[in-house]
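Shape matters. As here.
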Amino acid sequence: MITMRRVALISALAIFLAGCVNKEQQPAPVDTVQPGAQPQPTQPQQPVPVVPTVPTIPQQPGPIEHQDDTAAPAPRERHYDWNSAIQPLAGKMLQADGVNSGSVLLVDSVNNRTNGSLNAAEATEALRNALANNGKFTLVSAQQLSMAKQQLGLSPQDSLGSRSKAIGIARNVGAHYVLYSNASGNVNAPTLQMQLMLVQTGEIIWSGKGAVQQQ
């Protein structure tokens, strides 16, 4: 009787131990929620934004620039035969009465009194060249005349413009006579007029004029 109780006790103990082993071998559940804890909401997956592509617009050609054919043409430069007009006038002036040999002569720049534009510097140069070796007058040099003009506040290229200014300059440089000249009339066929004046009195002792032809 005692032996049967022992067998039964051992069998019951073996069954109990086998149950404990099975419980230890079972894996623990994943994401077990603790009692009283709130479940975390699942974040929805954000969609990837799609950037629309911009269609390429072909480059349009710019407006074609046309050259303005109506632009004003550059003014034509006129050239004159000053020598043909100056030489005979200079010869007559040198033979005028009342002109003393060896006197000092101031040749003023030729003034433009025409109705257009002309290169008066060319006329002045031709006039000085015609009188350079005249044998009767000693000419005031271009350098002396330039310095005298600067003393009056004038540009060396400026014409004196009036007879009174020309006489005033002539007195400053010690000249006895002054030759005052201007081109007047139509610019296409100007007239060259020359006047020889006595510096001391301002008297015009000779005058002459001649036509100037274009080259």
Observations:
- The helical segments are 2-25, 82-94, 120-130, 142-151, 163-172.
- The mean pLDDT is 78.
